[in-house]
Amino acid sequence: MVKFWRSSTARFILLVFGIELILAGGMTLTLRSLTRAALEQDAQVFAEGLTRDVRTAYVEQGRVGARNFSALRLLFSEGRTPVLLMIDKEGRPLFGNLMRWPAGLRAGWNEADLARAGPDQVDAIGVLVTRLPGGERLLAGQALENDQRLSGIVDRATGTALIFALPLALFAAFAAVRIINARVDDINATAKAVSEGRLSRRVSLDGSGDTFDRLALTLNTMLDRIESLISELRIVTDGLAHDLRSPLTRLKVRLDRAETEQNPAARSTAIALANEEADRLLAMLTTALQISRAEAGIGQDHFETVDLSALAHDLAELYAPLIEDRGFELQTDIAPDVAVRAHRELMVQAIGNLIDNALKYGASPIQFMAGQTATHAWVEVRDRGIGIPPTQRAEALRRFGRLDPSRTGFGAGLGLSLVQAVARLHGGTIELGDAKPGLIIRLSIPL
Amino acid sequence: MTQKILLVEDDTTTADFIVKGLHEQGLAVDHAKTGRDGLFHATDGSYDAIILDRMLPGMDGMAVLGAIRAAGIATPIVILSARSAVEDRVAGLTAGSDDYLTKPFAFAELLARLRLLMRRATAGPANAVETALTCEDLDMDLLSRKVKRNGRLLDLQPREFRLLEYLIRHKEQVVTRTMLLEGVWDYHFDPGTNVIDVHVSRLRKKIDAEGESPLIHTVRGAGYRLGARE
User: Fold this and answer.
1) From B188, B193, B220, residue closest to A410, measured CB to CB
2) How many cross-chain Cβ pairs, A to B, lie less than 8 Å apart?
3) In the structure, what pLDDT confidence band is assigned to residue A329 with cuts at 50, 70 and 90?
4) What is the mean pLDDT of residues A118-135?
5) CA-CA distances (angstroms) from residue B179 to A219, A368, A405, B163, B187?
6) Are residues A410 and B221, on separate chains, in Cβ contact within 8 Å?
7) Mean pLDDT throughout A132-142?
8) Residue A148 DSSP symbol
């Protein structure tokens, strides 16, 4: 129980309850004081009217006129109990329904307790006291008995309202907590389902765009990302497992052969071949890891200003002898002063892969170009090989997406997906086109 | 005097393989299995080089590296790591290691780098700016950037000049393809194909005139070595 009262739910209930109570109390108290003010105002207005009328009668027709008028007014009391008394200069009562002038009245508005002439007992009255031109004094007003009863009713009603407000406030507090808990529970259930492996579960949205909806949306976006990463990872591991199987088998066969080989020369050849196979495997693993890291956005904090023109020249120079040795021709067209914010080493690797790809699968001449548009810097490699048909281009960029099943070369099926991952890391794109014949690959990254 | 190496590595298979290889090269090896042991051995200061695994139980390799350097021990250190990312390599080098090698590696690669570091350490600080390098009958003038073999002027491209300069500076040592890619091109990537071999073979053709004994030798399974035929 102690634990419950320390929970945020309990605190929230108390908070809502308190606020409800303060609001209800404030409202009824305000109502009460407003009613009282209105009643007093009404009594004052009546007293002023009566005083004015009696004074007019007095001015026009003297004491007698005033007395006759007063008698008439006392008769037609308009549902109130009027109080009226006029006294002369010496303080003797002249007429009215009070027996004597109450003590302690001052000029102006008074509220007092006093006895009236007649059967009635002590009453509260509200009267206006004025002096007439002839020296007489006049008090005019009404008994406040009715008003006080009304005021009492208002007070009791206020009390009752407050008593009813108590459970209502409590109910409102619990209702509010229930609404919030329901949405939090939904999020909770989703998180639980996801952690139990149901990765496709999402938090439901009510479309209101409120804080909970925004939280749910953020969570769903996060879950989408997690799901896609995991399925990517599954593809990578499946692809790796699949692609590692054949080189590993070859490696094993070669090692077996080396073991049984008696001829020293043949033996060392077998070992060298096994070594080559191992290198190929390592290169594949390294590339697969690089792709994963780039796709996870790792490395963005290592961006620097890279002179793409210089880098392209450097790479062209690095590959030129090899390209020439293979009997290919390399044509370069590199625009000067192209600079980008980039991860230098990954850019080197990506561009190297493009050239390597052309060298492996293309035909001479290889064209290597770099330049910039208003928004992007680009590097393009064209070859005159058989190219890739438009329908297979997406497949070519997919991890381990090998177009030609006979291709079991170095880092097979990963070269272009690494380029794509690097492009994405830089917020750029990789486009495949047709050089008629041959392949155009263009890597663009924003300036 | 036998050179002494400290190996800090928790994986027994890797450690045995390295220890055996180093012994075969006539080097003495002490092997520590934990970071704490490694640090204890290293502080003795009698080693010519330290091979330090990055992931160690108890005390992380990077922490050991930091502690060794903080203790003022300048012994050359090669970090071994299964993490190949550029960021990790940079972190290792800035923390005070002298070289960084990614697992798995060829033993020849480790040996080449180790020998390079030990030679650099014993050579002491680079003396007055060198203006000329020589190896056998090869003369390199670093100021006029002219190279002569047997008095005959060689026509080298700027990159070929740097490649040869690197080889001469490491003459009689095995340099691997990765070392060349790093030292001459400043690339830390895998070019996929052996682009370096083509550069070396071109340089070789320019250096060796007919009848001259070859100076650049291919070391099988490792890389290249510049020097007289052994």
Assistant:
1) B193
2) 61
3) very high
4) 76
5) 47, 27, 34, 11, 10
6) no
7) 86
8) H
Chain B residues within 8 A of A325 when measuring between CB atoms: 198
Q: Report whether B225 contacts B175 (CB < 8 A).
A: yes
Which helix H or strand E contains B219, and what residues bound it?
strand B216-219
> A313 by DSSP, 3-state: which?
helix
Token pair listed for A440: 């155009």
3-state secondary structure of A253: helix
Nearest Cα residue to A368 out of A323, A337, A418, A428: A323
Q: Please name the amino acid found at residue B219.
A: V
CB A272 to CB B221 under 8 A?
yes
| CB spacing of B87 vs A289 below 8 angstroms | no
- pLDDT digits over B47-67, tens only? 999 999 988 887 788 888 888
Question: Cβ contact (<8 Å) for A321 and B195?
Answer: yes
pLDDT one-digit tens code per residue, B201-229 = 999 999 888 888 889 999 887 889 998 87
| Cβ contact A359–B193 (<8 Å) | yes
pTM of the model: 0.58
Give residue-wise pLDDT tens across range B122-140: 765 555 567 888 888 889 9
Determine the distance in angstroms separating the CA of A330 from the nearest CA of chain B, rounded to an integer: 15
Q: Which residue has the tokens 């939904």?
A: A186
